[in-house]
Amino acid sequence: MDELDPLIHAPKRLRIMTVLSTAEVEFSRLQERLGLSAPDLSKQMRQLVDAGYVEARKTGKGPGSTTWYKLTRQGRRAYDDYLATLRRLLDGASAS
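^ that's the sequence the OP posted. Answer follows.
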């Protein structure tokens, strides 16, 4: 049986990956779009960055700095594989 990637399957991280699948996004924009607190978003992003699914890029220094996030090639593959697995599971469930 196909298995869904547990790192992506968590609802908050799935939403993050979905947003990042379309564009590179700045932290505060991502926070606003997802309605997450800064500490919660930071925790979720750390897990995705540590897994190699997301790349973080900082611009500026100090209080005026911003952090941008985008999917890595590995992250894009993992997300695409996740969607393909989900589709297979759903197709199998509807055929039953």
